[in-house]
Each structure stands twice: as C-alpha cells, then as structure tokens.
Amino acid sequence: MGYLMLIKLKRTRTHDEDRNLAMWLATAAGVLNAIALGAFGFFPSHMSGNTSQLSSEVSNVNFRDITFLATILVAFVCGAVTARMVVIGGLANGNRIIFCQILWVEGLALIALSLFELFFFSSANNREVIVILGFLMGVHNSTSTQLSNGRVRSTHITGTLTDAGISLASVLAALFRRDPSKNVSGQKRQLWTHLTTIFSFLIGGIVGLMMFKHLGFKAMAMVGAILVLVATLAMVRTLIRAKRTAA
Questions:
Q1: 203-247, pLDDT tens digit by residue?
Q2: 15-239 architecture in CATH?
Q3: Which residue has the higher pLDDT, 224 or 4?
Q4: Shortest CA distance to 134 belongs to which of 22, 51, 23, 14?
Q5: Cα dihedral 18, 104, 118, 201 in deg (nearest 10)
Q6: What does the pLDDT read at residue 247?
Q7: N or C: which terminus of the chain has fewer CB atoms within 10 Å of its end residue's CB?
C-alpha cells in the first residue's frame, strides 16, 4: 500500500503514508542538494542561507550576485506556486494521481538537465542550472507539503527541526502531566514523521556526495529515474485499483 503515499485520498492520511513520503522525497531532496553542492558549490534548496547571503551581497553592492541570489529565491517560489496551481486544477477535475504526475515530470526534467550537463557542461552555465534546480526544489517541497497537509516538508529542514522540537515538547509535557486527555500517541507519531524527514534528508546528502564523486552528473539522472519509476508505479497501481473498484 506504499503507493498511497502519493495519492490524495478523501480519508485522513496516516502517519505511515507520511513517513513513506518523507523517506522517498526528503532523501531525493538531500541527494539533489548534495549533488548541486559537489557540482557548483551551492545549495539550490537552502533558501534561508540564500536569503542571508543576499543581504550580505546587498551591503557589498555586488549587483551580479544580488541578481543571481534573488533569481534563485524567485525560482523556488515560482516552483512552489506552479505545483500548487497544478494541484488545484488537478483536484478540481477529480485527478487523484496529480501528485504522481508532478513528480513524474520533475523526474524527467532532472534527467534532461543531467543529460545537458553530461554533454554540454560549461562553467558559464552554472548559474542557470542552479536556478532551474531551485525551481525544481520549489516544486518538490510544495508537492510533499500539499500531499501531507504540511506534515512533510522535504527540503525545509529548518522548519522540520522546529516542528520536531515542538512535537517533542508536547510529548514530554503530556507525559510529565500524565494527562490522559492529551493525544500523546498522536504527538509521538508526528515526532517520528519529522525525525524520518530529517534523517532521510541527512542520509540523502551523504549518499548524494558519494554518488556525485563516483558518477558525476549521472547521479542526477539516477534520482530523476527513481522519481519517474516511483510515480509511474503509483499511477499504474491507482488506475488498476480504480478499475477493480468500478467493476
């Protein structure tokens, strides 16, 4: 039933589905972030750091870097907006596999970007590639956030760490008070979801650096291929299940 992690159902999502989603998408985000670091020395999804660096460049009046950093921020937001608009349109038309389709297209985009870098790599194109990756990271994070109703943010580790701290504090407070009215089990499950996201991103970052070291830009194509495969399997299983239900 793991394919349900990519499907927006009428019933309430389970924490198992969110944890599966976190393992796949946060790991993929960590790998892509590490590949970008290895290739370009830059994190395409680290918007807090990019914003801080933008402030620094403004004070130094470096207009070229200011434009570049501002473009990354805009690209990330545009990716999030694009994913949201596509989801709204898909759900309005009863498209239950719209999230799978978004990840499928993202995977193809990563494969295309990887092939471009393999055949036409030039340091002159580095900034443009980083901006494209920033856009895709915005799509990626928006997709996981919408699917999980805000419980899984695959690239936003600062916020996830904050959420994990809040969940841990809620669990400890309920346990110390021994208040049976508090939903301790629910808070524990949410804490595990946040921890799964954090450690998946961390492991993805380690694996991503190793992959780029040995495979170069082929590593990016592998991530794209995995996203395409997972999304395709989820779409096929959903359609088969829908036909059986209709029959």
A1: 999 999 999 999 999 999 999 999 999 999 999 988 888 777 776
A2: Up-down Bundle (1.20)
A3: 224
A4: 51
A5: -10
A6: 65
A7: C
Domain ranges of the chain: 15-239
The secondary structure of residue 44, as a DSSP letter, is T
* Nearest-angstrom CA–CA distance, 141 and 103: 11
What single-letter DSSP state applies at residue 3? G
Residues 32, 107: Cα–Cα separation, whole Å: 11
Rg (CA), the chain: 19
- Assign residue 182 a region (left: φ > 0; alpha: ψ between -120 and 50; beta: otherwise): beta
Query: What is the percentage of the chain residues whose pLDDT exceeds 90?
Result: 38
Q: Name every residue whose Cβ is closer than 8 Å to that of residue 18 and which is 6 or more positions away in sequence.
A: 5, 148, 151, 152, 193
Whole-angstrom Cα distance, residue 33 to residue 12? 31
Per-residue confidence at 1, pLDDT binned at 50, 70, 90?
very low
Full DSSP string of 192-226: HHHHHHHHHHHHHHHHHHHHHHHHTTHHHHHHHHH
Cα→Cα distances 3→106, 145, 153, 217, 239, Å: 18, 17, 19, 28, 11
Q: Is 10 exposed, middle or buried (0-12, 13-18, 19+ CB in 10 A)?
A: exposed
Nearest 10 degrees: Cα torsion 221, 226, 228, 232: 160
Residue from 234, 197, 192, 231 nearest 1 by CA: 234
* pLDDT, position 149: 82
Tens of pLDDT, residues 174-208: 777 765 555 677 778 888 888 999 999 999 999 99
